[in-house]
Amino acid sequence: MENTQVSAYVNALGTVAAPGLRATLASILATEAEHMSVILGELHEPQAPQAVVTGSKPT
């Protein structure tokens, strides 16, 4: 369930233009990701199963 929520907030973040609402969504997204990490830790699963790559390579 947490994974579904994180995915939904990530998708929503890309569609919202209002800066205040984007900040709120980003905050909720971070909290849900923290929840997912704790749950995975309790299940003895990797808390970050793969690296998150964003942005472009430094020049």
Mind sketching the topology for me?
Layout: H1 2-13, H2 19-42
Helix pairs in contact: 1-2
Description:
This protein is mainly alpha-helical and 59 residues long. It has a domain at 2-42. The protein is 61% helix and 0% strand. The chain is built from 2 helices and no strands. The chain has helices spanning 2-13, 19-42. It is elongated. The model has no long low-confidence stretch (mean pLDDT 79).
Concise synopsis of the structure shown:
This protein has 59 residues and is mostly helical.
The overall pLDDT, averaged over residues, is 79
* Proportion of beta-strand residues: under 5%
- Cα gyration radius (Å): 13 Å
Alpha plus pi helix count: 2
The 3D shape can be described as: elongated
E-strand count: 0
User: Helicity, in percent?
Assistant: 55-70%
| SSE series | HH
The low-confidence parts are none
Q: What are the key terms here?
A:
single chain; mainly alpha; 0% strand; 59 residues
